């Protein structure tokens, strides 16, 4: 018997654990490996070592395949659960990402509480790119914001006037810190990965990482210790629930 993330994995002779189709490791172990990778700034080799310490022999290449295959599936389930649940004040920002010597722009939107609404990697920083992000946001959230906050990039104003003319727009660099700070976790992971290897890999990572980060964003400084433990337990329970919904 072994314990993984609070889950007791009983010997196969006692209880047959849940499995994803065509995968020999139990679903709990796969979900745990994916959770480790996206929840903490770890490399695939770090996750391999952590699993090995718990008696689970799996290569870092396999962890990479699990993260790519199941990470997006788990993120999709989380996105469906949270649709329409975010605050009506959105903050938008963009940051530079260099991939194989080519400059890209990572556009991101968060709500006033810091939850990631969506992120989109694009090769341009213009009105067309801003329109793509806003269309993606409106489709994904199913609602328009009450207020949109951005820096002074004029592309935001032009795109907003075309798509959401009735939405209040506040354009000032000093009030957009929430969106700017939301880039920091991705910057840390970018350094840990020694840069993203391709635009596809970057988009896949940010699409997954943002949704999982939302689930475990608990705003600890505003909580008592007991409340924090309860919310953390709820987040872990939600994670276990959505990972068992996958038919893969």
TrEMBL record:
Which GO-annotated molecular functions does the record name? DNA binding
Is Glycosyltransferase included in the keywords of this UniProt record? no
**Pfam families per the record?**
DDE_Tnp_IS240
Question: InterPro entries in the record, alphabetically?
Answer: DDE_dom, IS_Transposase, Transpos_IS6
Instruction: Please provide the Gene Ontology terms (biological process) for this protein.
Output: DNA recombination; transposition
Print the keywords alphabetically. DNA recombination, DNA-binding, Transposition
All residue ranges annotated as the DDE domain in the record? 89-216
The protein's name in its UniProt record: Putative transposase
Phylogenetic lineage:
Bacteria, Pseudomonadati, Pseudomonadota, Alphaproteobacteria, Hyphomicrobiales
